[in-house]
Amino acid sequence: MTAGTGEDDIISRFFRPIATSPAARGLFDDAALLTPPPGCDLVLTKDALVAGVHFFPDDSPASVARKALRVNLSDLAAKGAQPLGALLALALPRPLDEAWLEAFALALGADADLFGCPILGGDTVSTPGPISLSITAFGAVPSGGFVPRTGAAPGQAILVSGTIGDAALGLQLRLDPGRAGFRDLPEAGRAHLADRYLHPQPRLALADALRAHAACAMDVSDGLVGDVTKMLAASGCGGLLRASQVPLSEAARVAIEVEPELLATALGGGDDYEIAATVPLDAVPMFRAAAAAAGVPVSVIGETYRGEGLDVVGRDGHPLQLAHGSFSHF
């Protein structure tokens, strides 16, 4: 009898126990077998995370696992899709940290169960560099129900889910906890900002409302201003965003009141993983009602118009110029 490879051992010990969907075939095959629901289209998305870029090297493995899956689920939600499953590619440095891997796998399995997105397979390799991972997620929408990034038109409302800027402020809190805006922030507020950076909340509950009422949508991953600008450019129209209408958490509001410069961080920073959408004006009440019924708050933050670009009006009513509207890798 021939002993298995190191990768076989990793699969057997850490990932086979969490890959319980029949589609995963026990991870004994080199591919999964997935049958989409009748009358549905497949939606596919992929995000990569690298230590030192997307997460801190000393972040807990459980947080890394949750973030890796949830950022992909956020993309599915923005397209009006519900998850069907995911594939994981994981590059690990040597020597193998088995405690890290065990905690990672347990958290990934727990989130897969929580969000109904079973792990169907993937690949595990070694790397001389930092830990890096990539998840490919599969979702389904009723045929013709895909919510594009290209559907905005002049005269629509721009809306966003949840609150904006918490994750970007959470990152700044991690990097500089003593800066003025955070100095007197209560511990509960600090914990809220830190958690929003570490653990995105994919808005899967909003998928039905988006399909029914939104003209276009995308998730806010690189910064609200930059991402809305990209969405409108893809649709061939312009828009106006009012900073006074952007929803803020209590923690973000307190930090910005103390240090107004943090408003630019909130509007241009990444990792919110909320949903930005445009909705025809006559459909806004129905969209907001459907979102409320799904337990997801949404706010009108501006409107679209003929033209190009995104004009941002500050809280004082004057044009607001941001040095950086979004995060960019390059």
Notes on the structure:
The chain contains eleven helices and ten strands. By secondary structure, it is of the alpha+beta class. The protein has two domains: 6-142, 60s Ribosomal Protein L30, Chain: A (2-Layer Sandwich), CATH 3.30.1330; 156-313, PurM-like C-terminal domain (Phosphoribosyl-aminoimidazole Synthetase, Chain A, domain 2). The chain is globular. The model has no long low-confidence stretch (mean pLDDT 94). The longest helix is centred in the N-terminal third of the chain and has 18 residues, at 61-78. The strands form two sheets. Strands 6-8-5-9-7-10 form a six-stranded mixed sheet, with helices on both faces. Strand 2 (82-92), helix 3 and strand 3 (119-126) form a beta-alpha-beta unit. Helix 2 (61-78) runs parallel beside helix 3 (98-114), helix 4 (166-175) crosses helix 6 and helix 7 runs antiparallel to helix 11. The chain has helices at 6-15, 61-78, 98-114, 166-175, 180-183, 187-198, 207-213, 224-235, 250-258, 262-268, 284-293, and strands at 40-50, 82-92, 119-126, 132-142, 156-161, 216-220, 238-242, 274-280, 298-305, 310-313. Pathway: Cofactor biosynthesis; thiamine diphosphate biosynthesis; thiamine diphosphate from thiamine phosphate: step 1/1. Its EC number is 2.7.4.16. GO terms for molecular function: ATP binding; magnesium ion binding; thiamine-phosphate kinase activity.
List the keywords.
alpha+beta, 60s Ribosomal Protein L30, Chain: A, 330 residues, 2 domains, 11 helices, six-stranded mixed beta sheet
